[in-house]
Amino acid sequence: MPEQEKTGGGESTLTVLVALGANALIGVLKLVAGVLTGSAAMLAEAAHSVADTATEGLLLTALRRSEKPADRRHPFGYGKERFFWALIAAVSIFVSGAVFAIYEGLSTMLGEGEEQTLVWVAYAVLGGSFLLEGVSWLQAVRQVRNESRAHDQGFVQFLRTTDDPTVKTVFFEDSAALVGLLLALGGIGLHQITGSSFWDGLASLLIGVLLSGVAYVLGATNKGLLIGRQADPRLVYAVRDHLAARPEVEKVVDLLTMTLGTDRVLVCARVDFDDALGAADLERACVEIDDSLRERFPQLDEIFLEPVPRTDERLRARVLDRYGAGIAAPPT
Fold first, then answer.
1. 10 Å Cβ neighbour count for 45?
2. pLDDT digits over 69-113, tens only?
3. CATH number for position 195
4. Among candidates 109, 128, 124, which has minimal Cα distance to 191?
5. CA–CA separation, 136 vs 127, rounded Å?
6. Measured distance CA(29)–CA(126) in Å, rounded
7. Within-domain flag for 27
8. Bigger pLDDT: 208 or 310?
9. Which residues are in the Cation efflux protein transmembrane domain (predicted)?
């Protein structure tokens, strides 16, 4: 993983575009079916697809804006725009999808409900929607598998640790869409069998709860990335070992990393250099170390090297406060 090449946004863009096209078409079909059948679950699913379509639009914005080069006002670039717009997408899922579905479900369960008509329309739309959502879901799964292999991680582990919120968002919302379609099918079927709209309303309520859970997971992920999450620990340890192996370095005293964007990492290393190095030798060593780090770890975007004495007690105390005694071992 540490030596992987930076991944471009091409596959992420394709994944988002496939999801956008599928959800836009599905949303129209579900809305028509919901109006014709009077099904709360179908209307909830229509709101679900509207939320997903809005989400994909926000993710396209995220992909485009995060690629802007660094400038005077943003010297570290715009990589975190991807995290911001993905967070807004998570809010969109909750506001435009979950809230409506929960409201529609509760009002149907507690009210008289509408009589089902043209149930076959609902079944046909649900079947077609499942096929279209399946195409989008398979594209998301394909990308997750490809990127998890590139990062030398398992499928679930990659989803938990990835710094690319676009593919994670599409995968989770498409998975929720497939589950939501099954819930809607169950609610409509039970309504038809029992004659009670309670089941239709319950399906709508469960769809809203499902969307709320997805929105929470995605929101929490992007909150952590926006705050400034540490890089993948495997990368951190690999950078530390690379620095420690340099002949000019006596000890790596502290190593700070922060995710600046997808496959973009800032590194600040406080290093105790060999005291025999003169000023010119130290400057040359810093340039060579910077070059070697960038060559081995292409995802390193900004690198800062700070010469420090390993015996500085205040620095050691800060490291201990941050990592604990297990990480900040006493100088030897």
1. 34
2. 888 899 888 999 999 998 998 888 887 788 888 888 898 888 766
3. 1.20.1510.10
4. 109
5. 15
6. 9
7. yes
8. 208
9. 16-220
Chain centroid offset of residue 81 CA: 12
Separation of alpha carbons 34 and 45, rounded Å: 9
Using an 8 Å Cβ cutoff, are 166 and 14 in contact?
no
Indicate if the alpha-carbon torsion angle 293, 294, 299, 305 is positive or negative.
positive
Helix (H, G, I), strand (E, B) or coil at 303: strand
pLDDT number for residue 332: 38
Starting at the earlier edge strand, list the strands of the sheet with 264-273.
249-261, 264-273, 300-307
pLDDT at 111: 77
Q: How many domains does the chain have?
A: 2
Same-domain pairing of 207 and 271: no
Range of the domain at 128: 10-227
C-alpha 318/C-alpha 142 separation (Å) is 43
Q: Which of 199, 176, 135, 167 is nearest to 10 (CA)?
A: 167
pLDDT at 328: 43
Mean local confidence (pLDDT), 43-68: 84
Lowest mean pLDDT among 86-90, 120-124, 314-318: 314-318
> Is residue 195 in a domain?
yes
Residue 327 contacts residue 256 (beta carbons within 8 Å): no
Q: Is 101 part of any domain?
A: yes
Q: Which two tokens stand for residue 73?
A: 């006002």
**For residue 6, pLDDT beyond 50:** no
The structure tokens 């990492």 sit at: 265
Tokens for 305, please give them: 């090297």
